[in-house]
């Protein structure tokens, strides 16, 4: 029996992330000899980015590739597991947590009540930070007007003394250009560069210090259960390959964009010292606790996460 | 029920044809047009999939009404409703007549200039068409302008909002095509002014060929005292414009916030003129509620239809249409333009962008064209979609506030020459890309 | 210059609900002021946000979400408001050619079709609300925005949309009955 699934991405069509996700969709067909085909649609084509979970549960979509934090409004736990600001300094650390540290089981537990099955995890990597003023450390964030996405990231910046401004992605460019805001969380360095963010904000911070989203690949639980075990195995494996492919490709693109930015002479790329990064992480961890108390699941995420980080020496006791 | 899934038998080609035919037929029966698109979306959700697909429509409606960019629509409409209820608009046009009244078509040309200024204040259309429809149209009619010319100027001028930066069309294109939004804005600036220039030239030609279309001020020149008295009418509106543009370009407010600055400015103007009353604000706000109800529900219908069409495989369908059309890049490009025009007759630009850009942009790039230039061409093409029947949003927006004796038929008839001018602008942009990318 | 600037314009006709909309139409029309004032409040909130951010460097975390919420409910209610006033734009190409009897028949059929669609959408909105107002465990949990402020606006707009669609269904039913009776 053959299976065909319709997935929606949280990225627009021309975004490099979408291109890589599309390669994943093609790889699924290849690896399963055409027994499973995945049609990948760009963001908003069927429903909005933060409505895919409901659409999958309702059987309108079959699956999605999306930043889990978009569902923080349903349960704060989604926000905490998707972007524990400061927890990871490298994508591999997060992958290890998901695969061996109990992250997969947590995601299963969080998604199952909503009728979704967690297949695997990816990430675009550490996002770069867009700024039109030089930022060398936490001190420089004081009073900085910045656009940050919903949830924990915004909270952490506020705790660091910045003034987070709520703005939709579509207004980030003009607002940076005209100086309504000083800085913004946007995307990885290469995407920021391609979309001209550095033309209006010449002081990017790279590598970023603030955000590395957990991108989940998941699908309708009932439809997943219909799959024979061998296909399930191949699907899970394909996501692992996709994740490695994504971080490698984007890192390469980031490097190319970085060279271009440095060569331009007009853009100054800032890199925070380990000390400053640690300071920011310290502030972030204070905010984790505040999210943890908001729901039972969030507390569970907090306990598992801090347990794993301590055990592996990623944070001090 | 047997009906569920039945439409799949038609295939996507047949279903697309049926969808457009159904839109047309239901439209002329007199069903409110917002409900026509919603109804067609519902029929195809049920007929292609079944009841389980219907929540996708309500989900899209929710996302549509809770999107930040649309906040500027009620702001512009409120501004228009307050202006309309005060004497500001009348005094403004009397003053404008003083300065442009002796030039044939002068008031229409000044209206186009006002439209360009409004376009620089806003990234979407809707609010501007309503504003010009409430303010400029009655004034032009009062001054004896030809009805069709006046309607065309108001609609086409109001639609410039997405052609002159800032522009949500260009922003969405930039996100979809992963090109620089700043480059797009820079590239769109001259083409936007060029299009406005076409409108001005058209007004001048028509007015001089047939002087009855645009009467000029007769009689002796006004005395200096009279001129000064009338010029006062310009003072407050210009101050409001400076306030809004200044807050955007001075980095004080975002584009959406600036629309609220405009409302505040207009309200303060009525206070200065001694016209402000609670009753005026109440009536203006109620009119705003009604007008945005009409405008937004047209958008709601459109967004529902696009979601259903995409779920049916619309993107794949467009992709199949375009592949293998020709090896000649120019032919492919022209075919794309034709396809955008046809889609523009029935769908709104967001839907068209979602449907076509994932397919068009990679092809354009691989053929060696500049994606920034293509973004401007796309944006120019979408100008036609706002005006073209049977689904021309700008025409509907104008209808929502136009005097009742102006029918939709009148509006669409008046728009035909302007659609021609827009097509000309698209052609010029394709023939001379340097207009955008210099 | 012969323009008379002192002429007093008569109070303009602001329109009202059509008689066929019945008691519900009148109620919908009266409640409209709540959402109309909401638009003015949204404007004031945006202004205070600009002032606080630009002059005091203290942007709020609630202004934009509240503005979007106020506009969103006004948009949704505006559709219902126009239904009661029959002010939604209609293409009357054929309709205007009809005699009074056929026209009435058209009005009845259109109201029934729109009513059935609205009923279907109310049901679909209920499916949406059942995920936005309740946690999977069944307890009441209104969907939040997930922002730092984290208001329940998304859940509220979804519930409001369902209610408005429900009222719209009833309104169309009343319209159909009154058109059929030929009540003026
Ligand atoms: Na504009
Ligand atoms: Na059109």
TrEMBL record, chain B:
Subcellular location: Cell inner membrane
A GO cellular component annotation in the UniProt record: plasma membrane
Domain (TRAP C4-dicarboxylate transport system permease DctM subunit): residue spans on this chain: 20-435
Record keyword Zinc present: no
Keywords of this entry: Cell inner membrane, Cell membrane, Membrane, Transmembrane, Transmembrane helix, Transport
Annotated TM spans: 20-49, 61-83, 107-137, 149-173, 185-209, 230-252, 258-280, 292-312, 332-360, 411-437
GO function terms (MF aspect): transmembrane transporter activity
Predominant localisation class: membrane
UniProt keyword Transmembrane present: yes
Superkingdom: Bacteria
Subunit structure: The complex comprises the extracytoplasmic solute receptor protein and the two transmembrane proteins.
Functional summary from the UniProt entry: Part of the tripartite ATP-independent periplasmic (TRAP) transport system.
Protein name per Swiss-Prot or TrEMBL: TRAP transporter large permease protein
UniProtKB/TrEMBL annotation, chain C:
Single GO biological process annotation from the record: C4-dicarboxylate transport
Family matches, as Pfam families: DctQ (PF04290)
InterPro entries: DctQ, TRAP_DctQ
The keyword Transmembrane is annotated on this UniProt entry: yes
Gene Ontology CC: one annotated term: plasma membrane
Keywords: Cell inner membrane, Cell membrane, Membrane, Transmembrane, Transmembrane helix, Transport
Span of domain Tripartite ATP-independent periplasmic transporters DctQ component: 43-173
Superkingdom of origin: Bacteria
Localization terms from the record: Cell inner membrane
Keyword ATP-binding: no
Transmembrane segments: 33-56, 62-84, 105-129, 159-180
Topology in the lipid bilayer: Multi-pass membrane protein
Gene Ontology terms, MF aspect: transmembrane transporter activity
Coiled coil: none
Self-association state and partner proteins as the record states: The complex comprises the extracytoplasmic solute receptor protein and the two transmembrane proteins.
Family named by the database record: Belongs to the TRAP transporter small permease family.
Function field: Part of the tripartite ATP-independent periplasmic (TRAP) transport system.
Name of the protein: TRAP transporter small permease protein
Source organism of the structure: Limimaricola soesokkakensis
Classification lineage: Bacteria, Pseudomonadati, Pseudomonadota, Alphaproteobacteria, Rhodobacterales
């Amino acid at each position: 029996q053959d299976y065909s699934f319709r997935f929606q991405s949280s990225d627009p069509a021309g975004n490099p992330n979408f291109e890589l996700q599309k390669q994943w969709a093609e790889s699924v067909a290849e690896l399963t000899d055409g027994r499973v085909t995945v049609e990948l649609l760009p963001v908003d084509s069927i429903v909005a980015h933060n409505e895919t979970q409901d659409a999958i549960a309702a059987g309108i979509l079959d699956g999605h590739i999306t930043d889990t934090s978009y569902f923080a409004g349903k349960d704060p736990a989604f926000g905490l597991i998707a972007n524990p600001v400061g927890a990871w300094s490298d994508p591999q650390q997060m992958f290890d947590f998901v695969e061996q540290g109990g992250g997969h089981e947590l995601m299963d537990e969080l998604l199952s009540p909503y009728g979704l099955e967690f297949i695997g995890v990816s990430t675009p990597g550490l996002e770069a930070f867009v700024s039109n003023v030089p930022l060398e450390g936490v001190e420089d964030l004081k009073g900085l007007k910045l656009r940050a996405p919903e949830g924990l990231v915004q909270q952490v910046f506020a705790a660091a003394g910045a003034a987070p401004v709520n703005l939709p992605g579509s207004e980030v460019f003009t607002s940076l250009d005209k100086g309504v805001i000083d800085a913004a969380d946007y995307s990885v360095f290469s995407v920021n560069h391609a979309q001209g963010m550095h033309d209006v904000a010449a002081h990017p911070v790279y590598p970023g210090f603030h955000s590395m989203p957990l991108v989940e690949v998941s699908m309708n639980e009932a439809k997943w259960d219909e799959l024979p075990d061998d296909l399930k195995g191949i699907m899970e494996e394909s996501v692992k390959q996709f994740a490695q492919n994504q971080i490698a490709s984007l890192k390469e693109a980031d490097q190319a964009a970085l060279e271009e930015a440095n060569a331009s002479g007009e853009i100054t790329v800032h890199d925070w010292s380990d000390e400053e990064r640690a300071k920011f992480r310290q502030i972030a961890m204070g905010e984790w606790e505040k999210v943890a108390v908001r729901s039972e699941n969030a507390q569970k995420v907090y306990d598992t996460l801090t347990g794993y980080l301590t055990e592996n020496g990623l944070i001090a006791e | 029920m047997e009906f569920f899934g039945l439409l799949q038998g038609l295939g996507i080609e047949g279903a697309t044809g049926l969808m457009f035919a159904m839109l047309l037929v239901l439209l002329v029966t007199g069903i409110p047009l917002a409900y026509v698109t919603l109804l067609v979306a519902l029929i195809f959700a049920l007929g292609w999939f079944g009841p389980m697909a219907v929540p996708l429509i309500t989900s899209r409606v929710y996302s549509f009404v809770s999107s930040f960019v649309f906040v500027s629509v009620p702001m512009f409409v409120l501004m228009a409703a307050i202006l309309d209820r005060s004497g500001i608009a009348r005094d403004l046009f009397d003053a404008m007549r003083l300065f442009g009244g002796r030039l044939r078509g002068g008031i229409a040309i000044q209206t186009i200039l006002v439209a360009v200024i409004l376009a620089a204040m806003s990234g979407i259309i809707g609010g501007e068409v309503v504003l010009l429809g409430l303010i400029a149209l009655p004034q032009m009619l009062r001054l004896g302008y030809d009805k069709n010319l006046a309607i065309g100027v108001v609609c086409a001028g109001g639609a410039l909002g997405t052609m002159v930066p800032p522009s949500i069309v260009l922003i969405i294109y930039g996100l979809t095509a992963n090109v620089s939004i700043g480059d797009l804005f820079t590239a769109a600036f001259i083409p936007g002014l060029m299009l406005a220039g076409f409108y001005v030239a058209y007004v001048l030609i028509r007015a001089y060929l047939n002087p009855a279309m645009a009467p000029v001020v007769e009689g002796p020149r006004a005395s200096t005292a009279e001129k000064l008295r009338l010029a006062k009418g310009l003072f407050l509106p210009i101050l409001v414009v400076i306030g809004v543009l200044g807050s955007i370009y001075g980095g004080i407010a975002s584009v959406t916030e600036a629309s609220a600055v405009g409302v505040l400015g207009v309200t303060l103007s009525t206070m200065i003129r001694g016209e402000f009353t609670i009753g005026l604000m109440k009536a203006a706000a109620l009119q705003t509620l009604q007008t945005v109800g009409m405008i937004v529900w047209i958008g709601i219908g459109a967004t529902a239809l696009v979601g259903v069409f995409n779920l049916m495989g619309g993107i794949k369908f467009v992709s199949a249409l375009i592949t293998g059309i020709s090896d000649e890049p120019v032919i492919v490009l022209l075919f794309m333009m034709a396809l955008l025009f046809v889609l523009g007759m029935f769908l709104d630009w967001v839907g068209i962008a979602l449907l076509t850009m994932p397919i068009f942009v990679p092809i354009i790039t691989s053929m060696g064209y500049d994606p920034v230039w293509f973004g401007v061409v796309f944006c120019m093409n979408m100008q036609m979609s706002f005006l073209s029947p049977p689904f021309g949003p700008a025409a509907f927006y104008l209808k929502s506030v136009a005097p009742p004796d102006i029918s939709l038929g009148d509006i669409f008839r008046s728009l035909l020459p302007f659609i021609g001018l827009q097509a000309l602008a698209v052609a010029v942009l394709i023939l001379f890309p340097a207009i955008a990318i210099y | 210059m012969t323009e008379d600037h002192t002429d007093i314009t008569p109070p303009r006709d602001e329109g009202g609900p059509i008689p066929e909309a019945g008691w519900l139409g009148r109620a919908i029309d009266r409640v409209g002021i709540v959402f109309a004032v909401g638009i003015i409040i949204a404007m004031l909130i945006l202004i205070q946000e600009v002032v606080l951010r630009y002059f005091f460097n203290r942007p709020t975390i609630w202004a934009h979400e509240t503005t979007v919420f106020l506009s969103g409910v006004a948009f949704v209610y505006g559709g219902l408001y126009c239904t009661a006033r029959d002010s939604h734009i209609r293409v009357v190409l054929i309709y205007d050619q009809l005699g009074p009897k056929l026209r009435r028949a058209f009005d009845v059929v259109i109201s029934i079709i729109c009513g059935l669609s609205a009923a279907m959408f109310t049901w679909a909105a209920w499916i949406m609300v059942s995920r936005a107002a309740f946690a999977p465990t069944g307890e009441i949990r209104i969907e939040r925005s997930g922002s730092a402020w984290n208001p329940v606006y998304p859940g509220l707009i979804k519930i409001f949309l369902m209610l408005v669609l429900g009222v719209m269904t009833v309104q169309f039913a009343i319209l159909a009955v009154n058109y059929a009776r030929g009540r003026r």
